[in-house]
Amino acid sequence: MSSIYAQKYPRRDFYYSYLPASSRLLISCFYLAMAAAIALSVVMFHAKTSFQPSVAAEYVRGNENVERPASPKMLFPKTKEELGDVSHPHLFIQGILLFILAHLFTLTRLKDRSKSIVIVSAFASYLLGIAAPWLVRFVHPGLSYVQIGNMIVLTFALGYMMAVPFREMWWPKEPARQSQNGESGVVKLAQHSL
């Protein structure tokens, strides 16, 4: 997208608000779909764990031999195969989606340092999210606190990477630039995209 924009407007900086309305709608629809997927993921995590570390630990470690289980359901320990069946597709799908969101996020007007912090946090959280059930199951049940905290960090990072470009697309704050004939560039482009 940015290379096409650069070819069409070689002397103009990239701003989301300068994109045609159809491109902004496409990206916005993608963000809405991702927001729904993230919300469903949080709801499913809550349904399985109630955001309680003890229930989260029992979900992967089982509770059949626990004297006072935290979960009212009988849960069996997850096997390596079961954890692998969940981890394998998540590594691919989440990695690709995170790459797309991060690419769109890099086109924003934030400082590079801020972008780098958010992107590294998101990717680290994504990898920790994949590793967390394995760590809880095979290392220590107390790491379920990390798993729940990580879910919050990843949700925030993904939401932020979508919110910033969305705001720049629909509510730009860049100053109006003057064109050669004295007209405001922002107004002219806004009228052109309608």
Query: What is the molecular shape?
Result: elongated
Spans with pLDDT under 50 lasting ≥5 residues?
182-194
Helix proportion? 55-70%
Average pLDDT for all residues: 85
Give the distance, in angstroms, between the N- and C-terminal Cα atoms: 19 Å
Using DSSP, what is the number of strands? 0
Summed up, the helix count is 7
Biggest sheet descriptor = none
Instruction: Report the sheet-strand fraction.
Output: under 5%
Which structural class should the secondary elements be placed in?
mainly alpha
Radius of gyration: 22 Å
Order of helices and strands: HHHHHHH
Q: Could you explain how this protein is built, in words?
A:
The chain has 194 residues and is an all-alpha fold. It is 70% helix and 0% strand. The chain is built from seven helices and no strands. The chain has helices at 2-8, 21-49, 53-61, 80-106, 112-138, 144-170, 185-193. Helix 3 (53-61) packs across helix 6 (144-170) and helix 4 runs parallel beside helix 6 (144-170). The longest helix has 29 residues, at 21-49. The model is unreliable at 182-194 (pLDDT under 50).
